[in-house]
Write the structure tokens for this entry.
Amino acid sequence: MKTSIKNPFLLPALIAALGLILTGRATAQISPNLTIIQSATNVVLTWPTNFTGFALQSTTTLGLPATWTTVVPLPVAVNGNNTVTNPISGAAQFYQLSQIAMEFIPAGPFTMGNSIGDADITDANPTNVMVSAFYMDVNLVSYSQWQSVYDWATNSGYGFDDDGAGKTANNPVQSVDWFDAVKWCNARSQQAGLTPVYYADTNLTQVYTNGETTNLFANWTADGYRLPTEAEWEKAARGGLSGQRFPWGNTISESQANYYGNTSGYSYDLGPNGYNSIGIIGGTSPASSPVGSFAANGYGLYDMAGNVFEWCWDWYGTPYGQPTTNNPTGPASGIYRVVRGGECNYFAFRLRCPFRYNFLPAGGGSIVIGFRCVRGL
């Protein structure tokens, strides 16, 4: 039996017979049809490979709100279609194709840095910075999203130093160094038919696909995916607020972000103490949580505080605003690359919007560091 269903409320008799439902959901562009072929024991789900930026998700109930999780195993390309084979378990299973969404971050000036005056932040003096409009991934790159692009890339001439890791398919990818994150951005761009941003030559002709080199060059006018600059990241994290420690205000609790509570050490930490209960599920190494588990900030972005650190493009350095306070891209050279946002395994002070941290670009392979992408207009 073969059918293609776009509306989750069509064909109730067929739904009852199969015990599942297929939907194709569009968020910002037309969604591909999701097609089913049923056998006695399996259901095969397919959609065209030329539709990029979609993840197959499932749930056992359509109650409000439904809890959708990324389907494992991940799709493989067969005759021009993404293909997933799942056993029929007897329980009703509902499916959707969910677009990997981005949110618009408006242009404008903002005060970057420690405007609240926390004494322990000494490398982020308040500076007025202008940032052009851009789009940012709503969520951290999930492990399943990483694997989908990674598999395409390694079959298309790319070489990575780390395979990446994730607690589950829907948890953020981690254990990727800065170089691999940059290459992955290029691969995601090419897979989607966009112009890559990063190159290994000043003429911007050699797309960066392999190795580790400090001689990397960005085409800031390209329409492809890239890492955010440090200024873009902080503007997005603040969600339109100013003068606040966190994306939502001046205090934090484990109902708002995934981190390790320490109420006696930080007056703005409302706890509770210890690992966040959501991160304990499945073990505390790491204590990461599924992407999007907490409320979004004012720009509709999730996990801009906690869960995993996020790579930025910039070399770490002071002061801000290099080489200019208009769309700064960081120092021309350095030793460490900037990471932002804090992590699930450590205290709340790292989750503050102005807090800056850094790692060697070839490091991070065994550390709780992930990333998300942006695109220029």
Notes: The domain at 101-377 is CATH 3.90.1580.10 (paralog of FGE (formylglycine-generating enzyme)). Residues 1-30 have pLDDT under 50 and may be disordered.
